[in-house]
Amino acid sequence: MLINTPNLEAIRVGFNTAYKRGLGQAETQYTRIATVVPSSTRESRYGWLGKMPNMREWLGPRLIQGLAEHDYAIKNKDFELTIGVDRNDIKDDNLGIYEPMFVEMGESTAAHPDLLTFGALAGGFATECYDGQYFFDTDHPVINEDGSMGTVANTDGGSGAPWFLLSTNRSLKPMIFQDREKPMFVAKDNPKDHNVFMNKEFVYGTDARYNVGYGFWQMAWGSKQTLNATRYAAARAALQGMKGDHGRPLGIKPNLLVVPPSMEQAALELLNAERDAAGATNVWKGTAELLIVPWLA
Length: 297
Description:
Order of helices and strands: HEEEEHHEEEEEHEEHEHE
Shape: elongated
Low-confidence stretches: 63-69
Number of strands: 13
Strand order of the largest sheet: 7-11-8-12-13
Mean pLDDT: 91
Structural class: alpha/beta
Distance between the termini: 45 Å
Helix content: 25-40%
């Protein structure tokens, strides 16, 4: 094959088509637990996470509910994936071997938000959220009804593989996916480019800019205890009993159980079985949707 402008353009289109096919084949899960927030700057601040607005009886002047004094920010990060194509493979018309790589490039690009989001979820036992505590912690600070300071837990600890019970039916989900620049396919395929001259290699890649952070910890329960009816019941009760500052009930309704593949059987028995191991009616059947996440393996 001659290395000329028409042939190089055709090659670029072919690789881009394979890349887009990979993008379309990926079955992403991150939007199930993360709210996608557009970003237009290097980082975005989420001071409002410290304050859930609350309707009140109108007595006297309006009470303006502004942002709490939290300085939680998510800084966007750059990500890339690049493939080199040997110039001799183009000359020898040996490009069929590259198509699967570009399809895989597309799948990997589409799946990367999953990897980041569920990685952050699993890392929430040791990563701070807006209130300065770990996202899953036993002592999140809250203001009690009498004005004193108290603490609230959204984890029961443990040392095993983690599982999560989440409320994802509100305007803000437990995780935030901050989207600055969507993935774009790019090429350095001019025969005069430095990479071709020095390494006889045409370069094709994709790059994007985004990051992941935490929303309201009150909407998530993380556990490393054994997943069973007792622990699941405790998680549901804790989330449904969550209160904001000054004792205000938050009305949290947990609806999604997130588990790694190793817990699939236990989770299916908990949420789908008609009866429990003792033969009694399984009262937890259908109380949440099950999401099995390979990125938690």
